[in-house]
Amino acid sequence: MANGPAGQALLALERGQDARHWLANLVAEPVLAHPEEASLFDGAPAVAFTLAATDQHRALAALDEHVEKITRCRLETAYQRMARGELADKREFDLIGGLTGLGAYLLRRGANDELLREVLRYLVCLTQPHQDGHPGWWATDGPTGAGPAWQNGHGNLGMAHGICGPLALLSLALRRGIVVSGQTAAINRICQWLDRWRCGTPPRAWWPEAITHADHARGIVERPGPSRPSWCYGTPGIARAQQVAGLALRDRTRWRLAEDILSWCLTDEQQLAQLGDVSLCHGWAGVVHTAWRASRHNDQLAATLPRLLNGLTAHLARQPPSSRGLLTGATGAILAQRATRTNTPPVTQWDTCLLLSE
Asked: Is 282 annotated as a binding residue?
């Protein structure tokens, strides 16, 4: 779904066009269903997510069986890892490759709330701290693999690969009345950890992408300033997750603080200048769509949209991506443009895969 025909199929469906060509391409080769490899963005769950926007009920039912098997296998493996007292690999729990992503599909599908609750129960367990004081989602290596700074693992804050993905899923489920024991406490634990690592003075505040073991030992992050604003790792995704958490908990202070920080980020030229492409993942489209979703609760954020949309449109015309994929290509940028221009929630609910939907 990141780079393949799923994005084109969803764009055609969003426009009310015939998507059969792209759907056929989606299943032109055998669909990956191995529990250790399939995820929301690859294999059976990705195909199922796309077909959920169609009337292909028989094929979707067959895929749902695979998604359930994959999810249960992943849950069993995760609980075995917890029982051994080992640290998690971020791909166990994250949105792109892990159980949070499978939970996002189940949230989108709305047909197996009990399996979704099992994923939520796992995420509640994940938020319990380790005996050494690290959070339960402390990962075994670094954000992009091994390296001297990451030899004792890291705490990832991002939406794509970090704890803000689970935070968003727990919060969106709570807002929809899908609740498990300990869910509210888990949301609060994550939010308190994010508070601990927030840098600057609100509203001129930001979060680092990841916390090293040395950061954790010092209790402070030594970074020169905000990194690239993005959906995947940056302040937009992190702030949006906390806005949704505040709305779910009816904590007005938290959601307003998240909105104020996001508003500063979206109007800070130094941060926006770090955007290097138009993608949903880490570029202009992700910023625009995150801002648009967040702005539905805040007029100050809504006021930033025309300028942000102009920035996305200009960059898309000047330097269109070579890929047509959803996450990193032109398709995602066009979908983000469409939602903001029409000010209409996507009929396909495509942005559930980013955990940006309501």
From this structure: yes
pLDDT at 286 over 70: yes
The model scores a pTM over 0.90 = yes
The whole-angstrom separation of Cα 177 and Cα 171 is 10
199 is in an annotated binding site: no
- Structure-token pair, residue 313: 């449109």
What pLDDT sits at residue 147? 77
Contact 49, 105 (CB under 8 A): yes
Residue of 206, 89, 200 lying closest to 150 (CA atoms): 89
Domains of the chain: 5-354 (1.50.10.20)
d(CA 139, CA 157): 11
CB 313 within 8 A of CB 256: no
To the question of whether residue 281 is assigned a binding role by annotation, the answer is yes
Residue 195 C-alpha from the chain's centroid = 19
Which token pair is 291?
A: 């801002």
What H or E segment, with its residue span, contains residue 196? helix 183-196
- Res 151: pLDDT: 86
* Interatomic CA distance for residues 86 and 89, integer angstroms: 9
* Mean pLDDT on 32-59: 96
Per-residue pLDDT for 79 more than 70? yes
User: What's the mean pLDDT in 131-139?
Assistant: 93
Of 180, 214, 182, 208, the residue nearest 196 (C-alpha): 208
* Per-residue pLDDT at 146 exceeds 70: no
